[in-house]
Specification:
mainly alpha
């Protein structure tokens, strides 16, 4: 069944993958912020950064939780039968403006996420390089990281 044959409820259910993936990312980032807060707060003056990281982590988790609720509500629409739509009430020009704006926002977000992924890859490469240097200086490690 293609998009033209789908009911509105089926379309919403199919689109639930967007908030699901958003939730997964936000929750993952939240847990990293919490982890970072645990070790940053141990030094002098670290309390402010720790506390701020924990606030941001809670807000990221709130985004994740809201996204999961939205995805669940969207999936619940799957079996709602198609309702009559009155085409005379559709303002095609306004709908097209809305769609263009949505596409622009989606594209901007996708680009921003890609830029952040590139920066994360660079950070990971730096961590791995530093870990390799530390292991070399210490004569290796006793554990398997696979």
């Amino acid at each position: 069944m293609d998009a033209e044959e789908m009911t509105c409820g089926q379309e919403m259910a199919a689109d639930a993958e967007v908030p699901e993936k958003l939730a997964r990312l936000m929750s993952h980032v939240s847990s990293n912020m919490e982890s970072h807060a645990r070790w940053v707060g141990t030094g002098p003056g670290g309390g402010r950064e720790r506390d701020s990281l924990l606030v941001v982590a809670r807000e990221y988790q709130a985004i994740a939780d809201a996204a999961i609720r939205a995805a669940s509500a969207m999936k619940a629409m799957k079996d709602i039968p198609a309702a009559p739509h009155d085409p005379s009430r559709l303002e095609r020009g306004q709908q097209a403006l809305w769609m263009r704006a949505k596409i622009e926002m989606q594209t901007e977000l996708a680009q921003l996420l890609l830029e952040h992924a590139v920066a994360s890859k660079k950070g990971l490469a730096m961590m791995e390089m530093m870990e390799g240097a530390a292991e070399g200086a210490a004569g290796g490690t006793d554990y398997d990281q696979t």
